[in-house]
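Hi, here's the filled form for the chain we discussed.

Project: internal
Contact: R.S.
Residues: 395
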Amino acid sequence: MNTDTLRKLSEQLATPSYIFDLNEFEKRAELVRKYFGEKVGLCFSIKANPFLLGRLPDTFDKIEVCSPGELTVCEKTGVDMSKIIFSGVNKTEKDVHRAADDEVGTFTAESLLHVEMINREGVNRNKVYPVLLRVTDVKGGSQFGMEESQVLDIIRNRSEYKGIEIVGIHYFTGTQKKKAKPIIRELDYISDLIDRVKAELDFTIERIEYGTGLAVDYFDDNADALEEERLASISDSIRALSEKAALTVEMGRFFAAPCGYYLTKVIDVKTNYDINYAIVDGGLNQLKYDGQLQGMQIPKIIHFKNNVCSDGEKSWTLCGSLCTTADVLSRNAVFDSLSIGDILVFCRTGAYSVTEGMAVFLSREMPVVSVYSAENGLTVIREMLYSDVFNTPKI
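And the returned structure, exactly as it came back:
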């Protein structure tokens, strides 16, 4: 989104506010498609930004859902339930039953308990549900997925499960990977696992859901180029794996981060012991960048001035509205004549920022959420939440 368009939109919205650019979101998905090829499926993990769900471009083949709440979002937005991969480390009998009612396309199993629950649901309904078995990180594991040996045992005993069909493997070890080497190593591991399972268990792994964990550069002026280089560096390995099994690449942050803009207004300015402070109506309860600690790194911030005066550039510490010294958005951010009423726009906030913050701390107003496209203009999809409550007269 160009600066002129963003300025015009900022004049239409209250602050704090998020704008998600649907054209940029689609452009990002198409960039991934360009490098990975048409044969590789693309899955959007909606935990990165559920507000984009009802407007997903056709580029996406699958949707990863990890909680009952996310399933509710899918129900309310009317997405194609057959595209859903119902994942998540905490599944209950009720969750599985509900997902079956919704006719989700695929279940993942992160434990033997998951396998048994999904199998029972299938048997009770006289159906067979496609299941991806999640393998934990082979470098040491985590609470996610199962050890390879247990996954192999489940495959070995697959005839015991009449309500599921084990169709493949789910593998994801973490996010913000800046180097190609660990990703290529994981792809090689999956390729080898496919071969070993076929040789040892006479079983064909038909599908792979793989999360690359590709990093997003929040604080680098050359972010787009760096991120495209990462895509290019793993593309050959991605394409090679897609020749051995039906491969779906699942990402959230990498797809959505560049499309987001967070708008917040300067409410007060002051200087304490030679440090210039600006208080804004947003804060860390709403704005979060991965890797930003106590505002020590400065993301791209666009400054819309409330007046044309200029008294030179100064360094500012930007603080939110919470009653904690931790509420620092950026230190040593340089602006020309920052003053009350100015709008600051934090860029690359399309993933997690809108959902990861301490949203209800201090009961500060929730941000407006809107989407924009060149074709359809600005659409507000969530207004502020507290205003009506606070302004309602007592009975």
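Let me know if anything looks off before we file it.
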